Amino acid sequence: MPARLFLSSGDLVADRRFEFARDLQLKGDLAAAADLLMQAIELAPNFASAWFTLGEIRIALGHPDAAIAAFRKARAADDRDRHGASLKLMWLGAEQIADMPVAYVQALFDQYAPRFEAALVEDLGYRGPALLFKAVLTVRAAAKKPAFFKRAVDLGCGTGLAASAFAKEVDRFTGFDLAPKMIERARASGLYAELEVADMVQGLRGRPDSSAELVLAADAMVYLSDLSAVLAEVKRVLAVGGLLAFTVETHEGDRVILGEGLRYAHNANYVCASIASAGLRLAYLEDLSARNEDNKPAPGLVVVATKA
Ligand SMILES: C[S@@+](CC[C@H](N)C(=O)[O-])C[C@H]1O[C@@H](n2cnc3c(N)ncnc32)[C@H](O)[C@@H]1O
User: Fold this and answer.
1) pLDDT over 90 (residue 7)
2) Could you read off the pLDDT of 221-242 as tens digits, one per residue?
């Protein structure tokens, strides 16, 4: 996993107490860690990292209401919410499911970038790009069309693993990603003609109508709660006959939930309804897992939709 985000309180003594508290937390002495964090917070009341860690410890100690209070303080102390305290609040059921804070996604993946590929592929058995590749070949074979695409857009492109899987089938790749350090890695891969640090919906909004034959989103829609805006833009940007291929994590319940790993899981019916409302046609949907979570395949879907 990525290194843990630390935002200094600006007070050396408070920061030192925080470090000791983290040591105690890692050794399993949660009550002592919580005490030390409270001492740090007395010295620096707007210490976002201390409030956030206290929230996590309170969850582990079985005190959800106190955890909610700590996460609210963490968010108030950092208005960009780089720790993602609002996600913890959603996960605890204290707030409605909503979008992820942009700064949280950027901080997470900027820290993750140097060891992203090793962590995802080796530690979590990541197989999203290979699953998308197989699905796209299947859809093209069924339509008796070649699996070759002049222009492709890679949403949440990360370091370029999806572009790498499709490199021989695509002439020109454009990539969008929120995290500047992931984009740096993608640039170094040499796989993309164009790259932009951008939210995927904003990035698509800057593209002309009918300007791509393929849009990919490998393990990226899991960071969007509502799929409608991105699907509407994909529909506009795809040329007639073009394909959208993406993975999501899924669950049996209603619509969208936020999982413990702080990624959204979309119900299959919700995904199908969102595709239909965007005016796209579902061409492929399989229960396939793109990565492991706790050494088990995380329930997932591989989806291909076409623009008729
Ligand atoms: C798990 S990584 C997957 C990267 C790549 N697609 C792959 O298959 O290796 C998810 C990526 O999506 C990016 N991301 C998350 N939310 C995003 C959004 N709203 N717009 C653009 N990129 C986003 C993250 O910064 C991260 O690089």
Assistant:
1) yes
2) 999 999 999 999 999 999 999 9
User: Separation of 220 CA from ligand 1 center, angstroms?
Assistant: 4
* Ligand 1, atom nearest to 128 Cα: 8
Q: Is the pLDDT of residue 243 over 50?
A: yes
Residues with a CB atom less than 6 Å from ligand 1:
105, 109, 128-129, 156-158, 161-162, 176-179, 182, 199-200, 218-220, 223-224
pLDDT digits (tens, 9 = 90+) for 176-194: 999 999 999 999 999 999 9
Whether the predicted pLDDT of 3 surpasses 70: no
Q: Which pLDDT score, from 0 to 100, does residue 156 have?
A: 98
Instruction: State in Å: Cα 219 to ligand 1 middle.
Output: 7
3-state secondary structure labels for all residues of 166-222: CHHHEEEEEEEECCHHHHHHHHHHCCCCEEEECCHHHHHHCCCCCCEEEEEECCCHH
How far apart (Å, rounded) are the C-alpha atoms in residues 226 and 223? 9
CA 264 to chain centre: 8
27-58 pLDDT per residue, tens:
999 999 999 999 999 999 999 999 999 999 99
Strand partners, 194: 174
